[in-house]
Amino acid sequence: MRFFEPDVADPGLAGELEAAYRRVAASGRLIxxxxxxxxxxxxxxxxxxxHAVGVGNGLDALTLALRAAGVGAGxxxxxxxxxxxxxxxxxxxxxxxxxxxxxxxxxxxLTAEAVAAAVTPRTAAVIPVxxxxxxxxxDPLLAVCKRHGLFVLEDAAQSHGAAYEGRRTGSLAHATAxxxxxxxxxxxxxDAGAVTTSDGGLAxxxxxxxxxxxxxxxxxEHAGVNSRLDELQAAFLRAKLPRLDxxxxxRRAHAAAYAETLGGAAGLTLPVxxxxxxxxxxxxxVRSPERDALQARLEAAGVQTxxxxxxxxxxxxxxxDLGFRSGQFPLAERLAREVLSLPMWPGMPxxxxxxxxxxxxxxx
Length: 364
Ligand SMILES: *Cc1c(COP(=O)(O)O)cnc(C)c1O
Description:
The protein is globular. The protein has two domains: 11-242, 3-Layer(aba) Sandwich (Aspartate Aminotransferase, domain 2), CATH 3.40.640; 244-359, Alpha-Beta Complex (Aspartate Aminotransferase, domain 1). The longest helix is centred in the last third of the chain and has 19 residues, at 244-262. It contains twelve helices and twelve strands. With 364 residues, it is α/β, with parallel strands linked by helices. The protein has a seven-stranded mixed sheet with strand order 1-9-8-5-4-2-3, sandwiched between helices. It has a three-stranded antiparallel sheet with strand order 7-6-10, with no helix packed on it. A two-stranded antiparallel sheet has the order 11-12. The chain binds pyridoxal-5'-phosphate. Pyridoxal-5'-phosphate is lined by residues 57-59, 83-84, 86-87, 129, 155, 157-158, 179, 181, 191, 193.
């Protein structure tokens, strides 16, 4: 069994994707045209935000949102010690310094208490990450950040359609960065990303930053970049957005089947869903001190698994200049040794989880 398979083979979707291609090709509008405008308003409405601004990928969504909020050299930005490296790369790209905070061990997301303890006079922003598809306990976090005047940018690259007390990611923080990398819960047929926000000024600055710092041709207010979500990807995303909730429901059904069949496994820690959360299981991540042996056993039986992520950000060579040492963020280091992502995609066969559980030698 593979770890993930794309959904483009779905015959209903394939027909719509082909129609989207023909529509864009016939229009002759390929960049910053009507498909992007339509996707931006459809995605903003889906999230419950006033604005969505399409960009080239998730890393640019994070970086440009920080820049649009005025974050830069001399600032500190609080981020989880355990996340995909892009969260940290975005901070570094603005010239600011990543300040790692250990997440809640059960949900792997930042807590208000831990963030409050890390705030200094230089702190400008916080990036809570709804990792693996589990949303962040956002209200207490927003309260702490309001007290200190901090910008809150959610990294929701893994949590399209997740919800906090019924409100979707994309509407919770001051701004939210999404990636539409093909394997994400909402994936394009290439690279794409977006920022959602209900702050009109921030949205306006983002529209400039993604397009050479310009709204009117040849007038450049900011030293912007070229990071646009192109018409073809926007048209593909429009075909896929109406299918997102059903796809997330299928992920949740697979997660329930995993929980049921893996429930008795000794030494295995399963993902949890907080009472206020709708988890969308971008990844189904279990933990075990025997991780490497379990992975080898599954691989020998033809079951593909992955590790998200094997090296914590603070120990990556890319961040050597920050001067962190091994042992400084023990939870992140333990997670890097113990996490194992089991196969998970909406179209996974329903019997997949039971098969994996049987191989792991659990009650099944
Ligand atoms: C995928 C991902 C990103 C980056 O998105 P790209 O589109 O690949 O640049 C950022 N943060 C997290 C948590 C991600 O999973």
